[in-house]
Description:
- This protein has helices at 26-37, 56-59, 65-73, 96-115, 145-155, 172-177, 226-244, 270-287, 306-318, 330-339, 368-380, and strands at 5-8, 46-49, 121-124, 161-165, 184-191, 215-220, 248-252, 292-295.
- The protein is an alpha/beta fold.
- Strands 2-1-3-8-7-4-5-6 form an 8-stranded parallel β-sheet, with helices on both faces.
- It starts with a strand and ends in a 13-residue tail after the last helix.
- Belongs to the histone deacetylase family.
- This is Acetoin utilization protein AcuC.
Amino acid sequence: xxxxxxxxxxxxxxxxxxxxxxxxxxxxxxxxxxxxxxxxxxxxxxxxxxxxxxxxxxxxxxxxxxxxxxxxxxxxxxxxxxxxxxxxxxxxxxxxxxxxxxxxxxxxxxxxxxxxxxxxxxxxxxxxxxxxxxxxxxxxxxxxxxxxxxxxxxxxxxxxxxxxxxxxxxxxxxxxxxxxxxxxxxxxxxxxxxxxxxxxxxxxxxxxxxxxxxxxxxxxxxxxxxxxxxxxxxxxxxxxxxxxxxxxxxxxxxxxxxxxxxxxxxxxxxxxxxxxxxxxxxxxxxxxxxxxxxxxxxxxxxxxxxxxxxxxxxxxxxxxxxxxxxxxxxxxxxxxxxxxxxxxxxxxxxxxxxxxxxxxxxxxxxxxxxxxxxxxxxxxxxxxxxxxxxxxx
Length: 393
């Protein structure tokens, strides 16, 4: 296997643009600009790959043909309604099919490069559209690129794929698509569905008949910061991945759990997000011989958070992590100020937060995070042959 990292990129990926909408492609533009100015994309062994759109044969492994027809037709029909399109969350826009298919094709290209041994890791920061359903747009997502890529991996012969979603919203589309397929483990940490879209992702969602234990959900209460998040992550994710023994790790790395994000209520820092990406890389190295496909996802603090978080992700995927105290380059600051006037442009790659945590223990007076952890472990650990009360599991 090559030790290279593939970064799938083309400025055409910025065409997934819903207009005056929270999911603004400027966050991807500024991410790639920051990574480039910090030298991440010029590291030895980093290959930039230009994606091709996913064709109908690839897309229909996940999405219904009638839905593809609707996505194509909607921009030509000012009265179009249906399939979740034409809503405030998923407005119709010109080139909707083409730009959505390109994002899906980019994540498929990342997955194929890793599966075929052309690279150890691959990243598509424009991807991570995890809410799209087989016949419905949802949550800013038209085509579900992580699910399309996972389906492609299954077609190529993969037998055990782990998908870990650290977006603040539940990875409902990917879970739904593979809920009855034991070849795919879906793990999602997210703000509780009692408080946040999409209203799913409870601990008792553990997989359909024949796939029991292959859906894992850790819903966290509003206000959780880095220490609680890391405590919950490390109390669940390593154990279920080790029990499942995946051949390849796919991650959705939404940055919207940050304390500055306008659409949710977790209180993570960029430093905590960086720590999560490091933990995901370590798990891929331990369990999958390094095979890791990473995508972006949500994130609506367009200047303040997303570019820094995903530049850390790109650095971790391509080699040495960026030191948190690193200054953001002046040229990038000028670009960010020009592209989004009035936003606070960060001066450093850190929020000056130590993301340390205390490991979970099944004793003492539980707080809200520990209750969430206990509920998840009780629901799913026995299905994977693990002891929900043993902190070693």
